[in-house]
Write a structure and sequence with these properties.
369 residues, alpha/beta, Spore Coat Polysaccharide Biosynthesis Protein SpsA, Chain A, Hypothetical protein af1432, eight-stranded mixed beta sheet, two-stranded antiparallel ribbon, 47% helix
């Protein structure tokens, strides 16, 4: 009896989502981890993940779970190139394989096991899981179709290849997860567990900023802070953290919504809290002065605080350069100088803590030296 393998496709850009899907947190795992673990729980020990975009980040996740990484250097050609890369990597003893896009993280191990049971006792080339009379992911594909998949790139991709065979069957399953993909940020927000804060997506953040007439100068700053905070968060999640990327991005985009007003962090907090985003509002309130409870652990508040200090106007600078720059503006104000030193020393300590956890130098990561 041959082996059953699983191919998870995680090489794409996540361009429609806006957030990088494989590293998004769920209740107690990342999106990519959830799919890997469900295959392992179903008894499949040959799980292969096809990576391309941000491959170095995903390699860290796969190493942690002892999962094979298949690098698709042609990932910019689309999903079928990843299908071919995954299928090409399979060993000769592989009898059949699942193909699952990484944005379908909720397929249960029971569904996977039922599909394997049907395959073992049947002549079928393809088994489709079906929920409410609709086919979903992942199909289980016989290795007899491997040459067809590798030989050409049909216009309709893998679906066209699988549709050519008459030896297929639809298996009804009680599993809505086979239909549940994270195609957009709205899809992700709909399935957020209670442990993760609700937040406005990027387009909603932009509308909020427009409503409050935020200047172009401030917009450029907040967008760069969001980009920097997103990079830091993705690196952290690739190393075993579960930073809420949506919360970080929304908080970073909105943190200066009241810029120019007195006590603007508190004013921004009030604005966003009134829109029913209390957790985002709390991060905004702490972006200038980080309370002690957020300084010693790596969390969303600390990430946004650090990213804000790393961005001067819309350019990334070292924290040392930022301190020199800020101190030059208040040479005759001892109270202001003391405040600047305190805030930037807090940021420096956060940066050192993150660098030690990631074994990454920020100067190399952001190239601001």
């Amino acid at each position: 009896m041959g082996k059953i393998a699983a191919i998870i496709l995680a090489a794409g850009y996540s361009s429609r989502m806006g957030l990088y899907k494989p590293l998004l947190p769920l209740a107690s795992s990342l999106v990519l981890e959830n799919s890997i673990l469900n295959f392992y729980k179903a008894g499949i020990d040959d799980v292969r993940v096809v990576i391309g975009y941000k491959a170095d980040l995903l390699k860290n996740v796969l190493e942690r779970w002892h999962t094979k990484a298949i690098v698709n250097r042609n990932y910019d050609r689309g999903m079928y190139s990843s299908v071919q890369a995954g299928v090409l990597s399979l060993t000769p003893e592989t009898e059949a394989f699942f193909v699952l896009p990484a944005d379908y993280p909720f397929v249960t191990c029971d569904t996977i096991q039922k599909m394997i049971e049907v395959f073992r006792g049947s002549p079928y080339d393809v088994i489709y899981p079906v929920f409410n009379e609709k086919k979903g992911h992942p199909p289980l594909i016989s290795s007899t179709l491997r040459p067809d998949i590798l030989e050409s790139e049909p216009q309709d991709g893998l679906r066209e290849i699988l549709g050519r065979t008459q030896k297929n069957v639809e298996l009804p399953v009680d599993d809505a997860g086979i239909m549940l993909d994270l195609d957009s940020e709205d899809d992700y927000r709909k399935i957020l567990p209670a442990s993760l804060a609700h937040y406005p997506c990027r387009s909603e953040c932009e509308k909020i900023l427009q409503t409050y007439n935020v200047s172009n100068q401030v917009l450029r700053h907040t967008r760069e802070v969001a980009r920097v905070a997103g990079i830091i968060s993705e690196y952290l999640n690739s190393r075993g953290f579960y930073i809420h990327l949506g919360l970080v991005m929304a908080s970073a985009l909105l943190h200066d919504i009241a810029k120019g007003e007195k006590y603007h962090p508190q004013k921004g907090q009030q604005i966003i809290a009134s829109l029913d985003y209390p957790e985002v509002a709390e991060v905004i309130a702490t972006h200038m002065d980080l309370p002690a409870i957020y300084r010693d652990t790596i969390n969303e508040h600390a990430v946004v605080y650090l990213a804000d200090k790393m961005v001067r106007e819309d350019k990334i600078v070292s924290l040392t350069a930022r301190m020199t720059d800020r101190m030059a503006y208040c040479t005759n104000n001892a109270i202001a100088r003391k405040s600047i030193i305190r805030r930037l020393e807090t940021a420096i300590n956060i940066q050192k803590n993150i660098e030690s956890k990631l074994n990454v130098n920020f100067n190399e990561l952001f190239n601001y030296g």
